[in-house]
């Protein structure tokens, strides 16, 4: 793959494994094993079976007719919101739990922002009968309370991250600290295409099922494999990378990644990483992150907990730098409006994260014949409180 | 990065001189610059030297210190609130070599260094009389492939960490790349724990000792009193006290308490 990772874990200047020695044995074990394991026919069979019969894949590619009329193009939703547990996060969680089992791990840790990855991880741990500890920022626990309850009901322990900004980046720090203290029997299921190599590549591979299915489904709908545009929101970037993956080498497909502008890119309350960030190192990889001139990580803001992260995965940093994908941003207000519009025009209540991708449609000009695929990464059940408060229902 | 490999030009720095003259019971102290207040870095260093510390690690704060426990996390957060930056630290250190003679290492995470500029950082640190650097999240591959020339050209020792899980092959490689000492962690842990001597940890220390590494070894993480210090010195050339000293800095009148603190360790 032209845009793939090299043997040292780099995408151009981005990636690598900037980790303390305490994490080296675990990360090295993964690096040595992950490709062998995920290319093994037994693994593939088990992964495919669970995706089909447990997750409910393939997720539909839905031709959104009213949206198509409104925006003057053929608009398709890739319905990751219909997956078991309500988002794309389950694809990666299934892949990593099967891998952890093959590595002989007895305990799983994870970080979560919106709670979708935490729920997905708690779910696969219940499925496999493995102990599960999820770290979640204190602020996120409050704004995504239903997901905290779901994780508990699924048997996971939810530990609040009360350091720093008390959101996703701090939950990630706490999970890394846990992993340092448990160097032998624990696997860390990272929830996005971030972290030290091999995580960005491994998670991208598990999420690549999104674009693999989309290509086939597009042929059924349009007679063609390739759309003109592919859109997805970016927190760490896993649904976007999964949505882009099998289109990366098809240069004619325009890839659009939507970041969260929060209250506006220049408002001081934003999570629009490529607009506000600089190159540096965050959570084990060289990437683009929001930081002060002195290299301190800046606390991001977005109404959407899943996009409230100061970095992006290293492959995104690379695609941004070489202009293979276009990075744009959408504000809280634009996203909330788009979420409401989708609910009332298509009968689908999207996650606020996914609503960011939908809002980008307002800003684009299409030809009538354009085929446009949007990754509807998750459903909005977890966000009802936020929607209701926002619109004063 | 296109510089000639310059191991040849490497000359003895203060760390090498110390290890050449003293082989046992070396005591090093870690503290976070900017904590509890700005403009105390050199005062504390001077007091520690007078009290008998052999060398020092001056931490520069980072917003996301993943290898640190609550005590050093807190000191870092407070130091940042106080306004500590690398620029400010270097300004404080202009006085360093007028007042302090023992070896000094800077310890901190990679991102602040990367923003400052790695080459610029190494030059500046060396100019001010810093002898070595500990960057926990700069691993061996990245160091060797991308950055080592800047350290070597400026006569700065880069210190690597080793844990009970580090393989013997990797330890050999670390020994090759090191030129002052190797930092042994008593267990895979974040800072601020307490040293627990189980059989498997004693085996690990013995295994390292039997490897007869060319570099001295210093044990860190979890050294908090005379008992743990003495125990560590049975297996290594010395030990590092961090969180315990940072806690002292939170007390009133900490400057006056430094001599007794150092005495209590030995
Ligand atoms: C529904 C949904 N979409 C998107 C994201 C953002 O993550 P990523 O950028 O890795 O897809 C999240 C994260 O929690 C999410 O829950």
From TrEMBL, chain A:
<dbReference type="InterPro" id="IPR006653">
    <property type="entry name" value="Trp_synth_b_CS"/>
</dbReference>
<comment type="pathway">
    <text>Amino-acid biosynthesis; L-tryptophan biosynthesis; L-tryptophan from chorismate: step 5/5.</text>
</comment>
<feature type="modified residue" description="N6-(pyridoxal phosphate)lysine">
    <location>
        <position position="89"/>
    </location>
</feature>
<keyword id="KW-0057">Aromatic amino acid biosynthesis</keyword>
<comment type="similarity">
    <text>Belongs to the TrpB family.</text>
</comment>
<keyword id="KW-0456">Lyase</keyword>
<dbReference type="InterPro" id="IPR001926">
    <property type="entry name" value="TrpB-like_PALP"/>
</dbReference>
<dbReference type="Pfam" id="PF00291">
    <property type="entry name" value="PALP"/>
</dbReference>
<comment type="function">
    <text>The beta subunit is responsible for the synthesis of L-tryptophan from indole and L-serine.</text>
</comment>
<feature type="domain" description="Tryptophan synthase beta chain-like PALP">
    <location>
        <begin position="56"/>
        <end position="378"/>
    </location>
</feature>
<dbReference type="InterPro" id="IPR006654">
    <property type="entry name" value="Trp_synth_beta"/>
</dbReference>
<keyword id="KW-0028">Amino-acid biosynthesis</keyword>
<dbReference type="InterPro" id="IPR036052">
    <property type="entry name" value="TrpB-like_PALP_sf"/>
</dbReference>
<comment type="subunit">
    <text>Tetramer of two alpha and two beta chains.</text>
</comment>
<dbReference type="InterPro" id="IPR023026">
    <property type="entry name" value="Trp_synth_beta/beta-like"/>
</dbReference>
<keyword id="KW-0663">Pyridoxal phosphate</keyword>
<protein>
    <recommendedName>
        <fullName>Tryptophan synthase beta chain</fullName>
        <ecNumber>4.2.1.20</ecNumber>
    </recommendedName>
</protein>
<keyword id="KW-0822">Tryptophan biosynthesis</keyword>
């Amino acid at each position: 793959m032209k845009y793939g990772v090299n043997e040292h874990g780099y995408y151009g200047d981005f990636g690598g494994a900037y980790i303390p020695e305490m994490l080296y044995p675990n990360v090295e074990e993964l690096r040595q094993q992950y490709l062998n394991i995920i290319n093994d026919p037994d693994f593939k069979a088990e992964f495919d079976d669970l995706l089909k019969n447990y997750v409910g894949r393939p997720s539909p590619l839905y031709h959104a007719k009213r949206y198509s009329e409104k925006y003057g193009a053929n608009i398709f939703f890739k319905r990751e919101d219909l997956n078991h547990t309500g988002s794309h996060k389950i694809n990666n969680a299934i892949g990593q739990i099967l891998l952890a089992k093959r590595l002989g791990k007895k305990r799983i840790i994870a970080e979560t922002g919106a709670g979708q990855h935490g729920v997905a991880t708690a779910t696969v741990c219940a499925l496999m009968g493995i102990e599960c500890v999820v770290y979640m920022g204190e602020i996120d626990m409050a704004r995504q309370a239903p997901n905290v309850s779901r994780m508990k009901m699924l048997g996971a322990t939810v530990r609040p991250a009360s350091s720093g900004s008390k959101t996703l980046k701090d939950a990630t720090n706490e999970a890394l600290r846990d992993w340092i203290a448990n160097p032998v029997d624990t696997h860390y299921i990272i929830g996005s295409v971030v972290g030290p190599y091999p995580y960005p590549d491994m998670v991208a591979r598990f999420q690549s099922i999104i674009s693999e299915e989309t290509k086939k489904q597009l042929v059924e709908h349009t007679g063609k494999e390739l759309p003109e545009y592919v859109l997805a929101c970016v927190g760490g970037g896993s649904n976007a990378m999964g949505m882009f993956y099998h289109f990366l080498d098809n240069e004619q497909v325009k890839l659009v990644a939507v970041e969260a502008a929060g209250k506006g890119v220049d408002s001081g309350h934003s999570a629009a990483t490529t607009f506000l960030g600089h190159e540096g190192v965050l959570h084990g990889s060289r990437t683009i992150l929001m930081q002060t001139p002195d290299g301190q990580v800046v606390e991001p803001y977005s109404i959407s907990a899943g996009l409230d992260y100061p970095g992006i995965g290293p492959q995104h940093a690379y695609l941004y730098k070489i202009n293979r994908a276009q990075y744009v941003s959408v504000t809280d207000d634009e996203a909330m409006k788009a979420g409401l519009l989708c609910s009332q025009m298509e009968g689908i209540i999207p996650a606020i994260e996914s609503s960011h991708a939908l809002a980008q449609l307002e800003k684009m000009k299409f030809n009538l014949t354009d085929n446009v695929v949007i990754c509807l990464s998750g459903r909005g059940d977890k966000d009802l409180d936020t929607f209701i408060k926002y619109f004063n229902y | 990065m296109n510089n000639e490999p310059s191991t040849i030009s490497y000359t003895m720095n203060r760390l090498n001189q110390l290890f050449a003259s003293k082989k046992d019971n070396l005591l090093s102290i870690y503290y976070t610059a900017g904590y509890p207040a700005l403009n105390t870095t050199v005062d504390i260093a001077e007091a520690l030297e007078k009290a008998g510390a052999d060398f020092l690690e001056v931490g520069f704060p980072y917003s996301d210190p993943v290898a640190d426990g609550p005590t050093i996390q807190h000191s870092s957060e407070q130091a940042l609130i106080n306004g500590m930056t690398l620029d400010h630290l270097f300004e404080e250190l202009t006085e360093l070599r007028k007042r302090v003679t023992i070896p000094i290492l800077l310890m901190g995470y990679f991102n602040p260094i990367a923003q400052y500029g790695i080459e610029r950082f190494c030059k500046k640190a060396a100019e001010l009389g810093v002898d070595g650097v500990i960057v926990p999240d700069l691993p061996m591959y990245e160091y060797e492939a991308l950055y080592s020339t800047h350290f070597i050209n400026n006569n700065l020792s880069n210190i690597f960490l080793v844990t009970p899980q580090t393989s013997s092959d990797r330890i050999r490689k670390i020994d090759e790349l090191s030129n002052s000492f190797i930092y042994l962690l008593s267990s895979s842990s974040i800072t601020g724990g307490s040293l627990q001597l189980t059989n498997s940890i004693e085996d690990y220390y013995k295994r390292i000792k039997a490897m007869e590494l060319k570099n001295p070894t210093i044990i860190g993480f979890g050294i908090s009193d005379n008992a743990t210090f003495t125990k560590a010195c049975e297996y290594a050339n010395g030990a590092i006290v961090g969180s315990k000293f940072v806690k002292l800095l939170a007390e009133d009148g900490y400057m006056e308490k430094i001599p007794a603190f150092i005495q209590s360790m030995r």
